[in-house]
């Protein structure tokens, strides 16, 4: 890992009205690192994820990606957003476009990639996520797990420096969760820098370099998966884990 982190948040604060959803957040993510954000609902995990590509603005503090501060708006923001891939809970695919068209849209429109080159790359990525044979279907013809894998291929098509995953499996039927997590584990093995908000503790154990535990808008604890799950240091983390790891 290089000395300079790829993503740096310093003293980040965010309010929704009276609610202080992010409180003095300091977090760095290095190249090739997989950071998994876990914690109770409403702890600020998704908001934190969304501030990194400015889907949510911040009140105070700074966020830099690859040494560049997040631009407020305009072309600079569009450029930076294309460096930060995003995979949401809902797949957000264009229903009237085929799988292939969904994956090539960003490279064609934003990166101005020639069509033939964009399609070749898209097919490689669809193969990588295990659905090359679905390229000419429409999203409605696919299962939820397949649609989420298309969304991952779409994020990868922009050749991002980091991909944010905001609860990517929580809208899926249980039997489809694993197929999406397997793709994510493989991306992690390939050295993709990833920030993942998830309730899937098995994924956190398998793929994370670091687990960041949040509660009430604050980072309460961060550690390696073995240390965090094996011997959490704070009472808040112990309490959380006792509730979720017993079933």
Automatic annotation (TrEMBL):
It is an enzyme of class 7 (translocase). Pfam families: ABC_tran (PF00005). It catalyses: a polar amino acid(out) + ATP + H2O = a polar amino acid(in) + ADP + phosphate + H(+). Its EC number is 7.4.2.1. SMART domains: AAA (SM00382). Gene3D superfamilies: P-loop containing nucleotide triphosphate hydrolases. One of its GO terms (cellular component) is plasma membrane. SUPFAM superfamilies: P-loop containing nucleoside triphosphate hydrolases. It is found in: Cell membrane. This is ABC-type polar-amino-acid transporter.
């Amino acid at each position: 890992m290089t000395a300079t982190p790829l993503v740096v948040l310093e003293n980040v604060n965010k309010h929704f009205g009276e609610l202080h959803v992010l409180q003095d957040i300091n977090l760095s993510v290095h190249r090739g690192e997989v950071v998994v954000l876990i914690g109770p609902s409403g702890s600020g995990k998704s908001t934190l994820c969304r501030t990194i590509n400015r889907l949510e603005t911040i009140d105070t503090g700074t966020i830099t990606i690859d040494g560049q501060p997040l631009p407020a708006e305009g072309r600079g923001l569009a450029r930076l957003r294309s460096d930060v891939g995003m995979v949401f809970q809902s797949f957000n695919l264009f229903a009237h476009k085929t799988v292939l068209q969904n994956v090539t849209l960003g490279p064609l429109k934003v990166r101005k990639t020639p069509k033939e080159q964009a399609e070749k790359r898209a097919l490689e990525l669809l193969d990588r996520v295990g659905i090359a044979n679905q390229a000419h279907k429409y999203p409605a013809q696919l299962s939820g797990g397949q649609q989420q894998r298309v969304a991952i291929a779409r994020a990868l098509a922009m050749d991002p420096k980091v991909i944010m995953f905001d609860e990517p499996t929580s809208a899926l039927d249980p039997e489809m969760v694993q197929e999406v997590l397997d793709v994510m584990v493989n991306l992690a093995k390939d050295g993709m820098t990833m920030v993942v908000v998830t309730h899937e503790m098995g994924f956190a154990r398998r793929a994370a370099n670091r687990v960041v535990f949040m509660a009430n808008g604050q980072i309460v604890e961060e550690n390696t998966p073995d240390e965090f799950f094996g011997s959490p240091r704070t009472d808040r983390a112990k309490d959380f884990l006792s509730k979720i790891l017993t079933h």
